[in-house]
Amino acid sequence: MSEILDTLAHGAAPRDLSSAGWTEAYRRSVMDTFGPPQRILVRGEGAYVWDADGRRYLDLLAGIAVNALGHAHPTLTAAISAQLGTLGHVSNFFGTPTQIALAETLLRLAGAPDGSRVFFTNSGTEAVEAAFKMTRRVASDDGTPRTRVLALEGAFHGRSMGALALTHKPAYREPFEPLPGGVEHLPFGDTEALEHAFSPAAVAERGPVAAFVAEPVQGEAGVRPLPPGYLALARRLTSEAGALLVLDEVQTGVGRTGSWFAFQQPEVGGGVVPDVVTLAKGLGGGFPVGAVVAFGERAATLLGRGQHGTTFGGNPVAAAAALATIGVIERDGLLSNVREVGALLRQEIEMCGSPLVREVRGRGLLLAVRLTHPVAADVARRALDAGLIVNAVAPDAVRLAPPQTDASGVVLAPPLVLTAEQAREAARFFATLTLPDDLPDDRPDDLPDDLPDDLPDDLPDDRPDETEEA
């Protein structure tokens, strides 16, 4: 690593190779869409990373639920190196063994029926974009195209124009409107609103539904699993209406919640079989790769030849990375580790004794620590100073509700290889948290059951309003 940094220093990079020097170079050369970096990270190993000043951090964010195997996993790095040394890239005029093997593996893990197929992308946003295009191919019995798509309040599906149309937060949407039309956002978990959206009255007014799109566990809104029975209702309504059930598992897929897909958990999915599932993030263990899994012949044939494409999607190296990641998860029993260590992490934090910790919610190793007061940004900064990387959920600057009525928290999405001792290390930090000195005396005892729907989930409140990357 030092040789690489020395080489960079002779180019445009700073001669001062400290975090301060690199941060100044970042300000000069990188677009200011994320604000200044919190740290300059130079290497990682397992669940730890090191910054340019040599300080170590326990990574409880894992690149926003991306680095499933942690950092520098030997099996993953060997698979990528071996594939790149054999065949690095070909166009999609050709197939490769790794691409085909990955498609078959995903269909197996998803329990997809005969006739199902996979489309590969480079990211979650691209996977959602492809799924959104699939919804435009849904037609009524008379052949009339449907353009009405249902999504949920609090949803985050990506930043490209189609994915942004499905995303709920106005601050993300408004600078780029007009977006593709036809999208309606329903209240989160509201079964009456869902049923009404499919009612004859709604269809008569706004047309038939093409698709219902949802995250089984919302990340942007503060790690909120859909209530039990909700997806089962959505499956029934979409089936009766001839609409697609599209599940965004970009963040929750590939073992993050303790099963291969969150919809496979009885409390979340209730045994449903979706029509389309989007994947990315943890799929490549840190290497960019995404996928759209289409369940059954109908969904798999919605996009025909020439109707969609990608240059890099499904390239041999990305496919090899994904196969290696899945292989390690299966070989090392990481799904059970996610469930066991996730439960331990949750229990240890809930029992840490801090008056600032209200509860922990989520599934597996996708958790939100809810606080009794809206100081998540400060907690995230304190965690970083203490050597832990977490993800802040802070009250939005333009939120109309008085801040003392808001609950806030931090999100944890560590590598699936997190150990019990590392979970306890995280809990020890939360045990140190005390109540702020400047709390209002008239703060109400009752806090809302849910985190606000429109909050960013990974940056302190003094940075630009930029959070999730699909």
Tell how many strands the DSSP assignment holds: 17
Largest sheet: 7 strands, mixed
Per the principal axes of the C-alpha atoms, what is the gross shape?
globular
How much is the radius of gyration in Å?
A: 22 Å
Overall helicity: 25-40%
Mean pLDDT metric: 88
Strand order of the largest sheet: 4-12-11-10-7-5-6
Walk me through this protein's architecture.
The chain has helices spanning 2-9, 19-29, 62-65, 74-84, 97-110, 124-135, 161-166, 170-173, 191-197, 200-206, 230-241, 266-269, 296-300, 316-331, 334-350, 376-385, 420-431; strands spanning 41-45, 48-51, 56-59, 117-121, 148-152, 183-186, 209-214, 217-218, 224-225, 244-248, 276-279, 290-294, 357-363, 366-371, 388-389, 391-393, 408-412. It is of the alpha/beta class. The strands form four sheets. The protein has a seven-stranded mixed sheet with strand order 4-12-11-10-7-5-6, with helices on both faces. Helix 4 (74-84) runs antiparallel to helix 14, helix 5 (97-110) packs across helix 14 and helix 15 packs parallel to helix 17. The two termini are 29 Å apart. The model is unreliable at 394-407 and 440-467 (pLDDT under 50).
